[in-house]
Amino acid sequence: MDRNAVTPSAAAQSLPLLSDEQMASFVARGFLRFDGVVPGDINAQFMAEAGDAPDAEAGRKLRAAYGQMLAQNEIPEVAPGTPLFQAYSEGTALQRLLDLPLVRGAIRSLLGENPVFDHHFLHMTFPPRYHQAAGGENVSQHTHQDSTIDPRLAFDVQIMYYPHAVTREMGGTRFIPGTHLRKVSEVALGRYQNVRGQQHMVCEAGTLLFMHHGIWHGGGVNHSDDTRTMFKIRMHASGSQSRQWDVTDRPASESQRPIFYVKGRPASDTVAAILMTPEPWFEQDTGRLEFVNRVKLWRYLTDDPAYDADYWLTRLEHAPMVLA
Amino acid sequence: MGGGRQKVLVLYLANSALDSPVVGWARYDGTAETLHMAGDADETPYATGLAALTDGWRLFQASQLLPHPRGEEFDLAYLKYEFWFEQWIETP
Fold this sequence. Notes:
Strand order of the largest sheet of chain A: 1-7-3-9-2
Radius of gyration of chain A: 22 Å
Order of helices and strands of chain B: EEHEE
Largest interface: A-B, 37 and 30 residues
Distance between the termini of chain A: 35 Å
Mean pLDDT of chain A: 93
Low-confidence stretches of chain B: none
Oligomer: heterodimer
Number of helices of chain A: 10
Helix content of chain B: under 10%
Strand content of chain A: 5-15%
Mean pLDDT of chain B: 96
Largest sheet of chain A: 5 strands, antiparallel
């Protein structure tokens, strides 16, 4: 195989595809964040199409308020398995969002051609007065991984869309970078209240978070007076995920960098350096296994079974020939 | 109702040594004086498990060290080094 071949179609070449460094960061940390990239008119249109939550009412459960809003708003039901770019009608806020070149390019880079819609959901996090009226407790969502145990190397993508500004008081989506390669069972990890390095989505309107399906996350508690809105769309590949980003500058081969005994700070912007950057929560021994799993995912994406960073897999795969 | 109430602290450490750094944590307060929840703090309550001991927490459970099943040596799931502590609060 010619590893320098440019595989994206002509249409894709005009899209702003992700770079090597962005893809390596996604592999290592499980997310890419784009702040304020959705124009204000799309954000306003989305909020209008999503509709307003009914006012807090004594004795009315939040589920009832939610159900009323979903039934009345303009965001459609969509069946899983629908081609992603046929999921929404022309001119709707969500179709306009998916048509943004940055969004198209990122989806193409991560999932290849013809991505498929899995599901979407309107996440509303209500302010304290709703909980007081309903007689419930205003607490954050337990940390979890979406769907169920997923042993694949292939990955789905979830776009988290923040149509209005989110302040820290509003809670925001909490997520833990680098947890996406752990094979866990949904909210079985709910007892982990806090993990070093966790992030809270405090952002301006029109921010997008592209997440690997496996990343640990949860909704933050809303202490503000305003309802917080986030819209999630999950999608998966229909074909190859290999070399779908901007691979025009990919080197034919990548030499190993010196490890452990080094005389200065190594470059931090290479693929190897990005893949080998630990997270604050890494355990000392399993952090090394995280590196191994990142290299395996990079091999999958680059279609290069010999790729390695810092010799983690080469060392394990080295099998001296036994002479008779 | 008198007798006492339990406070629980769960620490996740960087290795199996109690004096290794804290990487994750959870707190539950049986006295109901405080309510802890996911994402409520970004700073670790203690630097290490040992620091919790010296502050008066009583260790009552630690995770085991288990061998790695053949063929699953690189599979990662839950945090590995879990330590449970308690404080018993006497109530009138």
